[in-house]
TrEMBL record:
It comes from Snuella lapsa. Keywords: Membrane, Transmembrane, Transmembrane helix. The lineage of its organism: Bacteria, Pseudomonadati, Bacteroidota, Flavobacteriia, Flavobacteriales. This is DUF3667 domain-containing protein. The chain crosses the membrane at residues 77-100, 240-259, 271-289, 295-313, 334-356. It comes from the Bacteria. Pfam families: DUF3667.
């Protein structure tokens, strides 16, 4: 009896109907699209959430450098791919991290608005109290709102009204300074409908300012007007995943310089993928623990110290050098990365978040 031939929907090759999977491409012969199939394929293809992940988890956590060695030696189907494990674990970490960042964003937004409100109140009272007692406040407000002095606009208008205030009160009223500029000047020019370019000049921007300086002052004015410091912090946190993806090859480059004759750059990149995956797992566990109870600072310190010990053992196993030289090079790598690369990256990310939030 000849078995019935069917055509694979994926590669369009013919094969016997008694096969459950296509012998040419491996797709299931009767692969009906259901919600289960859809989501399984998504998770499997993008995160490789299969038996290899669980087989890789224990060595990743408790056998430093083992997975990197296995991958370099050619065992690339037995364990999960280094880039895939990094992608999956980083997504999990930043999911948990989003809960912490959300609280900090809300707190920052609230504190920033309270600070700006206090500055407004203090600045208003410092002028209002002295002017009301002498009956000069109404005249000054009319000058500011109606621009009664012809030909006097912008910063010159503020100088005129400040002079009138000083003559009425008999003393100099110091304006409140926030974010590096005179807030009363900015507030008055904004109420008078002056164009932003004039306001930026009043804030201290030179007329011949470059496009970069113009953008910087405009972002500063935007932050002052919107008073949403939380949005700035959120922009910073949103930039961290990209920054980490850039920091990882930099860490691999440091290892390449320290172990120049120990493989190509791709070898060090494999090591870095697995090590950063371990870091994300540790940080995720700390975040989860913090949700359950208030983790003491000593416990946090022990966990952080364990990451250095893990790196040391991974370096020893992967690069196959002596204990002393491995410990020495691990310290150099940690020093360069933690005290030079990460602080510089943090400054760049924070500045970028401010410029583009």
């Amino acid at each position: 009896m000849i078995d019935k031939q069917i055509v694979c929907k994926n590669c369009e090759e013919k094969f016997d109907s008694n096969y459950r999977f296509c012998p040419y491409c491996g797709q299931k012969s009767n692969d009906e699209l259901t919600l289960g199939v859809l989501f399984y394929n998504t998770i499997s293809n993008y995160f490789s959430f299969d038996a290899r992940f669980f087989k890789s988890f224990i060595p990743l956590m408790f056998k430093p450098g083992y997975l990197a060695n296995s991958f370099i030696e050619g065992k690339r189907l037995l364990y999960i791919h280094p880039a895939q494990v990094y992608l999956f674990i980083s997504v999990v970490f930043f999911f948990f991290f989003s809960f912490i960042s959300r609280d900090q964003v809300e707190r920052m937004d609230k504190n920033f608005k309270e600070t700006m409100h206090k500055a407004d109140v203090i600045d208003s009272l410092s002028v209002q109290t002295s002017l009301d007692s002498l009956g000069g406040n109404e005249a000054i407000e009319n000058i500011k709102s109606k621009n009664a002095i012809k030909g006097v606009v912008g910063k010159e208008l503020i100088n005129v009204t400040d002079s009138l205030e000083n003559s009425i009160t008999g003393k100099k009223i110091e304006p409140k300074t926030v974010l590096g500029f005179n807030k009363r000047i900015v507030d008055s020019l904004t109420k008078a409908g002056v164009k932003d370019d004039r306001i930026l000049e009043a804030m201290g921007m030179e007329k011949e300012a470059s496009a970069f300086q113009h953008k910087l002052y405009r972002q500063l004015l935007k932050l002052y007007r919107q008073r949403n410091g939380g949005a700035l912090v959120q922009a910073f946190y949103d930039s961290i995943p990209l920054a980490m993806f850039i920091l990882l090859p930099i860490f691999a480059l440091i290892l390449k310089l320290l172990f120049y004759n120990r493989g190509s750059f791709s070898h060090h990149l494999v090591f870095s993928f697995y090590f950063f995956s371990f870091l994300f797992i540790v940080f995720s566990l700390l975040i989860i623990a913090d949700f359950i109870w208030d983790v003491p600072a000593l416990v946090d310190a022990i966990f952080m110290l364990s990451t250095f010990f893990y790196l040391f053992m991974a370096v020893k196993r992967f690069y196959k050098q002596g204990w002393v030289i491995s410990f020495f090079k691990t310290n150099i790598a940690a020093f360069l990365f933690l005290l030079l690369v990460i602080p510089l990256a943090a400054v760049i990310v924070a500045f970028g978040a401010f410029m583009f939030y």
